[in-house]
Amino acid sequence: MLSLLVLINNAFAIPGQINRNINAIMHDVDRMATEDPSKAMSSNPYTYIEGNANYRNIVNLGSSALPVLVDMIKNSKENGLREYILAIAVEEIAKVDLKGDNFGWSNAKEFVRAWNKHLKSVPDSVNNITSSEQSNEAKVEALVKLGTPAIPFILDRIEQGRIELAPALGTLLKGNNKVDFNADLVENYTEWARMNRTKFDDLRNIVMTVNN
Fold it and tell me: Among 26, 100, 106, 207, which lies 20 to 30 A Cα-Cα from 143?
């Protein structure tokens, strides 16, 4: 019952926190327009989040905020700076660079399409990478590029005994607010994966929702 109440509270708390912080960011943008016209004229959205505590608050919400952020972009009637900043936050939380991976997005609405396309590819990509003839180092590098949505599927493989993939978790779980993963302190990666897999059900659900 308690876990259900936590889920319900999060369902209301996370959108509220995102809205408060993105509103504060946009207020800062308006202030910049008055105080520093050079920044106001910038075509680079990253200008407006550099060193911004409100943006950092959004990112620090972690993976639980991902579906909320994407829905906010998708349901918005606008496709401007506000939505673009939310898209940047999704990429940072998920530790992906969809532009760099040639998904090709230039505005927030395009980002949503790129994001869904990426999520659809994650299960097959994990399978293809782990079953390939690449070196273990190359496999780990490729898995890391898939970002945090790949974590539950990597855990599946580690639970099956593919402990050579564990270094990917070291990168993808860095700064994670659910678990404190230190590869040097884990004595049994297979057991660790089994014990912690349910903590990433939200990420699995995000991926599988798009794939169903």
Answer: 106
